[in-house]
Amino acid sequence: MIIHLKKNTSAEIAQKVAEEVKALHYKKEDFYVLITGSGLKEVPSSIEVHVDQAWPMKNDLQLASRSYMDKKREVKIGDVTIGGDTNNVILIGGPCSVESEGQITSATELMTSLQLSTLRGGCYKPRTSPYSFQGMGLDGLKLLDKMRTNHGVNVITEVRDATQIEEVIEYSDVIQVGAKAMYDQGILRACAKTQKPVLIKRGFGSTLQEFAQAAEFVLSGGNENVILCERGIRTFETGTRFTLDLCGVAWLKEYTNLPIVLDPSHAMGYAYGIADLSKACLAMGVDGLLIEVHPNPKEAKSDAAQQLNYDEFGKLVGELSHLAKALNYNLV
Ligand code: PEP
Ligand code: MN
What we know:
Elements lengths: L1 E4 L5 H10 L3 E5 L2 E5 L15 E5 L18 E4 L2 E4 L4 E7 L6 H13 L4 E3 L17 H14 L2 E6 L5 H7 L2 E4 L7 H8 L5 E4 L6 H12 L6 E5 L15 H10 L4 E3 L1 H5 L5 H11 L3 E5 L17 H18 L2 E2 L1
Parallel strand pairs: 7-14, 7-15, 8-9, 9-10, 10-11, 11-12, 12-13, 13-14
Antiparallel strand pairs: 1-3, 1-4, 2-3, 5-6
Helix pairs in contact: 2-3, 5-6, 9-10
The structure holds phosphoenolpyruvate and manganese (II) ion (MN).
């Protein structure tokens, strides 16, 4: 159950009431939000006097649910807003990994030349093998920071485990929680303690409910700036890297109140499918796309097969702009 306490409720009373109903709680503007397990179906009479409004819930999709908030939440990324009543679609682009100053500067210049605001580059890469390139770490984060200072872009980068969370929070505008980290509660709880937007990628073996519950960890800790990212799930098909779950995206749009970003790059795994998928995803009505682009994909240190080259990316952005205009979306 989600409970809004009355506006003048003191911190002490909020704490007491929360303990009484075994609720998590956080302060939102000038009132407290309490979240109990979904088993509680009625407000106990002992706390009624402090309660403004309450929403019983069927399961643990609570703060992220349409039953609680029947509109899409807004999330601000620098000076760009997605979700809410905006028709903005954020096009997040950049290489899979930050590899050198030259490479990331070039990718940043590509983004700004196309009037795109949000650069992505991984510095702590969650690789399947310990022998593959693991990312530039803190040096990479400092390069991203340099890009935002010198070129005015917003940056998004991933946190691989809770040991780097402080650094990633400091140097990024959006924290990416990767598919393999979706269940990492150390990371999710740390993300709840900041107000930086958090983009959570769906684990490739996770149900939609589990995906939404990962978002609940961040929301229930008081960070309401959560974005969901569908990046493909594992099916029996091996012809493509993963299977982009667009039915799942329709489900997320129907049952959750969070902005949604689609990542065709990791789902497809091959550059040849990315343009078609990006256009389909845009037409479906989402809040953002995440597309990998590299100055020389063949030489990329991670995800070489799926990254677009600059010509392919530029052409795709042109096509997406036409489509966005026809559909009344603004590419940002
Ligand atoms: C990535 O975004 O580069 C990445 C590793 O993605 P995922 O966590 O979806 O596998
Ligand atoms: Mn990648």
